[in-house]
Specification:
The chain is an all-alpha fold. The protein is built from 9 helices and no strands. The protein has 2 domains: about 110 residues; about 130 residues, no CATH class. About 35% of the residues are buried.
Length: about 250
Amino acid sequence: MMNHVFTWLYPASVVILLEILFAYPRSIFWIAPALILGIIFSVFSITNRKIDKMFFKHALSPIVYTVSGLLFVSIQEGFVLKHVAVFVIAIFLLVYLENMYVLWNDKEKHQRYSMLNISSYFNIFAVFMLTSALYWLVFFLAFSSYTMLIILSISIFFLTFQTLVIAEFPLKKSLLFSSVITFICGEIFIAEFSLPTSVYLNGAFLSMCYYFLVGITKNRLLNTLKPKIILRYSLVFLICSLFMVITAKLA
């Protein structure tokens, strides 16, 4: 089917356009709109070419992810790192769009909760990229921290809301928990300005907090929240946080 083409065509286009951006930085003025319009059209094509609630149900995360990825690669300075970042971003997009295609066009292959699980990790990576980029803009270009907080809050709300909607949780509960998670992440974002760490460690820590909050929320709404699940999320969060603290001290 023709709409399957977009599962790999758009990620390939992301690689090409970002490589052009590295060579010609001023091209960002047409590359940024092209990337955003490209992901919107790709989701539109994969979801049977209809602008309805199902389109918006799947479009929010990829749009936020695309903008986050663009900001993230824009702050990279190392030659190898920025090229690696481009390919990682494209691979995540490929996996997400392929799973979306299977959900819409190949029901026999689709596994329950697969889209939910992939969306969760997709969004965690988006939070990391976005948070790192926003801290960089504040620390190195003196952007307003409150403006960055607003951008982060809107993005996290959309990412969380889409995750919960994909899981088919009630709308009111999805809005409530999305708001709570957004508020907590916003508080953490502001608090991290006082920590003597790098923008990437700040981004990683907030993304781990987001991982913990969304994970606990999903299991709570699925009525599967048990002590061992809380312990698992807590251990992952603590181990990653400890690793980040040690890394910060060695840096």
